[in-house]
Amino acid sequence: MDNDRIDQIIDKHQGEASSLIQVLLEIQSENRWLPKETLERVSEKLQVPLTRIQHIATFYKAFSLVPKGRHGIHICMGTACHVRGAQRVLDTAQDLTGIKPGETDLDLKFSLETVNCLGCCALGPVMEIDGKIHGKISPAETADALKKYE
Amino acid sequence: MSKILLKIDGKDVEASEGMTILEAAQNVGIVIPTLCHHDKLEPYGACRFCTVEVESGGWTKLAASCLYPVEKNLVVRTRSEKVDRVRKMILQLLLSHAPDARELQDFAKEYGADKDRFEKEASFCIHCGLCVRYCAEVKKKDAVGFINRGAKREISFTPEMIEYCWNCKECFSLCPTEALQAAYGLTAALVSSSPSCERKSEE
Ligand code: SF4
Ligand code: FES
């Protein structure tokens, strides 16, 4: 992400230090992660010390300080999904992507994450990819769904 | 500024508005033990070791004296069975993280805290925030900060600032444990062994 774009986002928030989290969220959603140079730029423009930005960026799970894949997979491991076979869905996803929860593949295609509840237990087991819910999914369907992503 | 009268350990104490119970007590020579308090820093309320019993309007409650503002007719007890129990528990919890901290050990003797009460989870830092706040508020350098949260929360030095820290080290004596020096040593070692930084210093 170039400095012009960062500055644009910051200007949108009138360069207010109190908008720090909003600024970070926008950069995160556009860039999928927060590189150090970007945080340095934000620190300079908003006059917020880098250590404080780091504190916030490591506090919220919405932020990532390492590159994330183009597609985010979230597999629910909550109780309802668990008893309906979430582990097998997760195993399939791990086999297919070659990564474990919390990891991103080398091609930056997928990032895999487990969550504790997606809030739709009746649909379990649930896998969410880029915000799209795949409910009552079988391991075979998991594989089919993942193959559709580039 | 208007005067406020309150009672601390049976003694009539005069304080001015905006003062904390801790400050009012210190003014008249009553000692309340603290771990995260520092005269030069804003009150933080991290350790709760300064807990006292406060009676106002017929109610008794426990309060962190380093944060609690004085009120008219407050009755404060800085030592009581309840207070001691709280402090003992805090010590036992902190000692499971920093079993070798001298300051904690001394207090442990006084409050009868058992350092083996909880399973050791030696993370050393007790999150008093003295180092982080001192660097931010007094030195205005923000060279050391907190990262992560909850059980994984820890302090971290900024590699780019490590030379500045080498010359300052004013926070070292504030740390009740050895966590700060260890974190500094780790960052300094990483900086000196990292090729990109070496190149810079050669230039
Ligand atoms: S490193 Fe020491 S001074 Fe800093 S927060 Fe931890 S215990 Fe407190
Ligand atoms: S000294 Fe009051 S909470 Fe730490």
Brief description of this entry?
Chain A is an alpha+beta fold and 150 residues long.
Question: What's the structural blueprint in terms of helices and strands?
Answer:
The complex is a heterodimer of chains A (150) and B (203).
Chain A: H1 3-12, H2 20-31, H3 36-46, H4 50-59, E1 71-76, H5 79-83, H6 86-97, E2 110-115, E3 127-129, E4 132-134, H7 139-147
Parallel strand pairs in A: 1-2
Antiparallel strand pairs in A: 1-3, 3-4
Helix pairs in contact in A: 1-3, 6-7
Chain B: E1 3-8, E2 11-16, H1 21-27, E3 51-56, E4 59-64, E5 75-77, H2 81-97, H3 102-111, H4 130-138, E6 144-147, E7 154-157, H5 162-168, H6 179-193, H7 195-202
Parallel strand pairs in B: 1-5
Antiparallel strand pairs in B: 1-2, 3-4, 3-5, 6-7
Question: Can you offer a commentary on this structure?
Answer:
The complex is a heterodimer of chains A (150) and B (203). Chain A contains seven helices and four strands. Chain A is 46% helix and 12% strand. Chain A is an alpha+beta fold and 150 residues long. A four-stranded mixed sheet of chain A has the order 2-1-3-4, with helices on one face. By secondary structure, chain B is of the alpha+beta class. Chain B folds into three domains: 75 residues, Ubiquitin-like (UB roll) (Roll), CATH 3.10.20.740; 43 residues, no CATH class; 73 residues, no CATH class. Helices cover 36% and strands 17% of the residues of chain B. The longest helix of chain B is centred in the middle third of the chain and has 17 residues. Chain B is globular and about 65 Å long. Chain B starts with a strand and ends with a helix. In chain B, 32% of the residues are buried. At the A-B interface, helix 4 of A face strand 6 of B. Bound molecules: iron/sulfur cluster and FE2/S2 (inorganic) cluster. The site of FE2/S2 (inorganic) cluster has 12 residues of chain B, from loops.
